[in-house]
Amino acid sequence: MKGLSILILLVIFINATAQKTIATNQNDSCPVITGFKIFNDALSIDSILSLQRIELSPDQNVITISFAFADTTIKHDAVYYKLEGADKDWIKAGSTATVSYTLLPPGGYDFKLKCNEHIQTTALRLLIKVPFWLSSWFIISCCATFIGGAYWLHSLSIKRILAVEAVRQKVSRDLHDDIGSALSTINILSTMAKSKLMDEPAKATEYISKISESSSKMMEAMDDIVWSINPMNDSMQKVFARMREFAGEVLESKDIEVKLHFDEGANDVALNMEQRRDIFLIFKEAVNNIAKYANATDVNIDVRLKDRLLSLIIKDNGIGFILQNADSGNGLNNMRDRAEKLKARFNISSETNNGTEIKLEMQTT
Fold first, then answer.
1. pTM for the complete prediction?
2. Contacts of 85 (CB under 8 A, 6+ apart)
């Protein structure tokens, strides 16, 4: 019995030794990763193999992988490798135990090894990240920016077209109202003067005088229209210069002394073409009325800007008038209408023999 027990123990020992030898041989026959480089920088293989997935930046797209057998008697030409995502087929290693990949595009990759047609588990799993300029959020942002920019340019183009159309309509309306009316008057007066030329020469002379007056007004109106649409005059500084010139020509010819003051800050006020023109025409109407009816010797003209409130004040020392008895033909209604268009406050104060003050106040942006 003792001999039989020894025999059984001997058999068990021999079997265990054989199984261990087979397992060792199997492990030795499997290729293993021995090195990993990014460009020429070698990384710790233990750290690399401990990762489930190696994540690389977009510029880390040149890699070198080395492998070997634990059993040095096995030749490398029995090894096949494949980088799924880059290689279509298995590649025989041949005499080399190193494989390199350059300029890999962003994406996921699995590096696999096999020996003697037996596929081993994935040796390395790689991920090369997508650069930010190819990421979905960046592309969407660029598309949104492009669409937004295109829409803004389109809106700007539409606004410019509408602005040009508004100018055309304004010029057309002004030409019809001012120039058309003046030409109609001249036509009627010339016909009447022609009919009276032989029988009533004095009356014909009166009609010719009215024709001259109407043509002068028409020329002034045309000059105002042309001046207002000229891009060279797109500033309040130009408006103030024209005010100064006009006041000097009209009032000084009547021996009226003019004192003008314009706040420097008012030069930078941003108003559109129609607003600038309406302010000037209110000023022009007021100055003409002073020259024609006020019998003044002094006129003070102030343009002020305080807390974005633009004020135009025109004060004379003339004979004044009673507002209730004022003739609407003096242009007072026109001035009020233009002030209403400007959304401005308009006030006239006058006393007999104590002059007149006209004040226009407009809130600016």
1. 0.54
2. 107, 108, 109, 110
